Write a sequence for this structure.
C-alpha cells in the first residue's frame, strides 16, 4: 500500500470515528424529566409575560440551572443520581455567583477565570463526578462574567439559577423514589448479568463468544456499580436489596464456569440456558414463579464446574425466595468498597504532587481560557460567553479526545447556532419557542451518550435560546455566534493541542495502561491458580476484566484523534485481546482445578506469574518480553495464550519500529 493510499484510508477511518454514534437504549423517563424540567420555568415566563424581558430572563436562568442538573442525571441508582445532580448544581451555582461578582470588571474577570480554570482542572484528579461538576462551575462562572440577564439585581441571577436546578433535582428525586420502591434499576442490572451469561453459553463461534464476553463484562461492571451506588444504611437493611446482592454474588462461580466453557468452545444444554434466562426474569419480577434447576448430567470438568455453580445459585435463590426472606443471613452479601472522600483527596494530592502530565493538562486549560478571555476583552466581543463555553467544554483535559471534540463542537455548532439563532430572530416569543425548547430539552438524554457532535447540535441552540431570549435585538446573531464558537475551537487547537509534545505521545502513555492491565492479570493468576476456591478470586477477576474494558474504551475514544495518534493507540488492541485470552485461560484452569480438587504445580504457577510481570514491564519500557519456560504438560492452555500475547507484543514492537523508520526517511 502506498503512503498516499494509507493516508487516505486513515483519514477516512478518522472521519467515520468522528460521526460514529455509540448504541444506547433510550430511557424515556429521563426524556420526560428533561423536557418538563428544562422547559417549565422558561415556558411559564414566555407564556405569561412574553414582553417582559426581566421575567423571561428569570425563567431562562431557572431553565439553565435545570439544564445542568439534567446533564448530570445519569446512572441507575436513584440516590446516586440525586447526589450527583445536587453536587453539580451547587458547583455551577457557586461558579455563577463568582462570575456575577466580577461581571463588568475586566481585570477581576481575568483573575476569576484563571482561578476557576485552575480549580476545574485540579478536580479531574479527584473523581469523574467532581470533574464533570467542576466543568459546570467553570462554564457558568465564565457565562455569568460575560453575560447580562437583564435583572434589576444581578445577585438574583445565581439564586434563580440554583432554584431552577433544585426544581429539576426534585423531579428526579420523586421519579427515583417511585421506581426505587421495588429497586427496579437494581433488579434490571442484576438480571442483565444472567441474561448475558445465557448469551455466552449459546455463542457458537469465536466472534460471537467475544461479543458475548464483552457484554458479560459490561453487565457485571454495571451491576456492581449500581448496587454499590445504591448502598445506603436504609438499603443495607432492606431484605429486597440484600437478596439482590446475594443473587449477584452467586453469579461469580457461574461466570467462572461459563468462561471455562467458552474457552473450550463448548455450548450448554438448552435447559441450562432457559434456566439462566428464567433467573433473569425472576430477578426482574419476583412475583413470577421461581425458576427450577433442571437435572444436570455429569460431564467433563468444565461442565462439572458449571453444574456445581448452578446448584449453588439454585440454593441461594431458594434461600432468598423463602417466606420472609430471612434466609439471606448465611449467604454472601459483600460488595466492593467505595473510596472515602478522604482517600480520594489523598489520591488526588499524590497525583498532583507526582504527576507532571496532569499539571501539563491543567496549564494548557488555563492558558486557553486566559487567552480566550483576554481576546474577548481586547476585541470587545459583544457576547463573549460562547467563546468561553467552547474552550471550557472542548479543552477539559480528562474528557477524551480534545481534537475530536473541537471538530465535533465546530461542526455541531455550525448547525446548532443556526437553529438557535434563527429561532431567536424569526420565531415570536410565544408558544412556538416553548415548543422548540421542549423538543431540544427532550433530545438531550437521547443524544448525550451517543455522540458529542449530536450533543452540541442540541445543547448549543438551547443555550443560545436561554441566554438570548430576553434580548430584543437579534441582528447578525447567526454570524456572530458562529464566529465566536469557531474562535474558541481555534484557540483550543492552536494553543492547547497542536504545539504540546504530550499530544503526540499519547500512544506512549497508553502503554502504561496496558502494562497495569498485565500486572493485574499477574496478580489474578497468582490468586486464581494457587487458591481456586478462595474468596478473593472473583474480586481479582473483576479487576482484570474491568481494566480490559477500560482499555478498549480508551482506544475507542482515541479514534477521534488525528490518524497519526489514533492508529498508534489502536495498534494496542491485538495485545489487549491477547491478554483477555490469557485471562480466560487462567479462569478456565482455575475453575477446572477447583472442580477436580487437584492442585497445580507451584513452580509452573510461579513461572507464569513471573512471565506476566515481565510482560508488563516489557510493555511499559518497549523492550522484548522474556520467554515462558514451564514443564511440558503444565498449564498448557495458559502457556499457549501467553505465547500468543508475547508474540503479539513483539510484532507490534517491530511494526512501530518500521513505522518510525519510514517516517524518518520521509
Amino acid at each position: 500500500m502506498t503512503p498516499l493510499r494509507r493516508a487516505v484510508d486513515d483519514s477516512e477511518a478518522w472521519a467515520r470515528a468522528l460521526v460514529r454514534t455509540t448504541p444506547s437504549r433510550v430511557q424515556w423517563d429521563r426524556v420526560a424529566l428533561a423536557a418538563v424540567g428544562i422547559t417549565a420555568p422558561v415556558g411559564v415566563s414566555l407564556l405569561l409575560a412574553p414582553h417582559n424581558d426581566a421575567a423571561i430572563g428569570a425563567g431562562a436562568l431557572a431553565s439553565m440551572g435545570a439544564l445542568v442538573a439534567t446533564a448530570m442525571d445519569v446512572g441507575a441508582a436513584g440516590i446516586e443520581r440525586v447526589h450527583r445532580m445536587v453536587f453539580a448544581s451547587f458547583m455551577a451555582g457557586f461558579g455563577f455567583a463568582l462570575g456575577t461578582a466580577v461581571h463588568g470588571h475586566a481585570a477581576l474577570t481575568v483573575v476569576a477565570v484563571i482561578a476557576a480554570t485552575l480549580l476545574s482542572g485540579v478536580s479531574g484528579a479527584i473523581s469523574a463526578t467532581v470533574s464533570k461538576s467542576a466543568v459546570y462551575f467553570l462554564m457558568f462562572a465564565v457565562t455569568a462574567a460575560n453575560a447580562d440577564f437583564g435583572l434589576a439585581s444581578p445577585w438574583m441571577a445565581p439564586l434563580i439559577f440554583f432554584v431552577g436546578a433544585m426544581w429539576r433535582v426534585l423531579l428526579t428525586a420523586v421519579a427515583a423514589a417511585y421506581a426505587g420502591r421495588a429497586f427496579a434499576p437494581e433488579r434490571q442490572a442484576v438480571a442483565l448479568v444472567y441474561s448475558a451469561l445465557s448469551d455466552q453459553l449459546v455463542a457458537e463461534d469465536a466472534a460471537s463468544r467475544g461479543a458475548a464476553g464483552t457484554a458479560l463484562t459490561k453487565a457485571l461492571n454495571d451491576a456492581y456499580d449500581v448496587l454499590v451506588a445504591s448502598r445506603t444504611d436504609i438499603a443495607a437493611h432492606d431484605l429486597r436489596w440484600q437478596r439482590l446482592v446475594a443473587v449477584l454474588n452467586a453469579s461469580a462461580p457461574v461466570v467462572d464456569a461459563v468462561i471455562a466453557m467458552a474457552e473450550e468452545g463448548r455450548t450448554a444444554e438448552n435447559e441450562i440456558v432457559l434456566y439462566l434466562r428464567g433467573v433473569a426474569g425472576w430477578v426482574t419480577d419476583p412475583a413470577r414463579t421461581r425458576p427450577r434447576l433442571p437435572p444436570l448430567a455429569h460431564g467433563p470438568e468444565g461442565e462439572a464446574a458449571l453444574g456445581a455453580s448452578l446448584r449453588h445459585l439454585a440454593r441461594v435463590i431458594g434461600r432468598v425466595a423463602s417466606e420472609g426472606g430471612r434466609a439471606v443471613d448465611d449467604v454472601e452479601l459483600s460488595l466492593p468498597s467505595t473510596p472515602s472522600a478522604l482517600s480520594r483527596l489523598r489520591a488526588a494530592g499524590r497525583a498532583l504532587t507526582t504527576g507532571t502530565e496532569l499539571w501539563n493538562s491543567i496549564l494548557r486549560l488555563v492558558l486557553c481560557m486566559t487567552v480566550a478571555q483576554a481576546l474577548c476583552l481586547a476585541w470587545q466581543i459583544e457576547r463573549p460567553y460562547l467563546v468561553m463555553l467552547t474552550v471550557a467544554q472542548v479543552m477539559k483535559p480528562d474528557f477524551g479526545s480534545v481534537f475530536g471534540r473541537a471538530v465535533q463542537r465546530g461542526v455541531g455548532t455550525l448547525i446548532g447556532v443556526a437553529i438557535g439563532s434563527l429561532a431567536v430572530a424569526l420565531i415570536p416569543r410565544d408558544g412556538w419557542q416553548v415548543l422548540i425548547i421542549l423538543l431540544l430539552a427532550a433530545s438531550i438524554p437521547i443524544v448525550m451518550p451517543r455522540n458529542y457532535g449530536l450533543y452540541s447540535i442540541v445543547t448549543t441552540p438551547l443555550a443560545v435560546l436561554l441566554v438570548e431570549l430576553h434580548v430584543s435585538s437579534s441582528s447578525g446573531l447567526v454570524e456572530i455566534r458562529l464566529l465566536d464558537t469557531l474562535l474558541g475551537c481555534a484557540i483550543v487547537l492552536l494553543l492547547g493541542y497542536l504545539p504540546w509534545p504530550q499530544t503526540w505521545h499519547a500512544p506512549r502513555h497508553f502503554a502504561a495502561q496496558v502494562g497495569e492491565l498485565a500486572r493485574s492479570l499477574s496478580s489474578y493468576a497468582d490468586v486464581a491458580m494457587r487458591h481456586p476456591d478462595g474468596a478473593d478470586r472473583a474480586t481479582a477477576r473483576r479487576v482484570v476484566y474491568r481494566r480490559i474494558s477500560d482499555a478498549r474504551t480508551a482506544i475507542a475514544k482515541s479514534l477521534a484523534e488525528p490518524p497519526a495518534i489514533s492508529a498508534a493507540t489502536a495498534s494496542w488492541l491485538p495485545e489487549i485481546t491477547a491478554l483477555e485470552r490469557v485471562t480466560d485461560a487462567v479462569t478456565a484452569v482455575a475453575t477446572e482445578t477447583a472442580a477436580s480438587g487437584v492442585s497445580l504445580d507451584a513452580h509452573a504457577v510461579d513461572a507464569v506469574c513471573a512471565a506476566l510481570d515481565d510482560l508488563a514491564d516489557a510493555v511499559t519500557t518497549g523492550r522484548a518480553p522474556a520467554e515462558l519456560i514451564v514443564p511440558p504438560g503444565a498449564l498448557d492452555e495458559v502457556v499457549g495464550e501467553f505465547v500468543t500475547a508475547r508474540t503479539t507484543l513483539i510484532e507490534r514492537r517491530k511494526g512501530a519500529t518500521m513505522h518510525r523508520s519510514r517516517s524518518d526517511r520521509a
About this structure: The radius of gyration is 27 Å. Residues 27-178+350-502 form one domain. The first helix runs from residue 3 to 19. Confidence is low (pLDDT under 50) at residues 660-666.
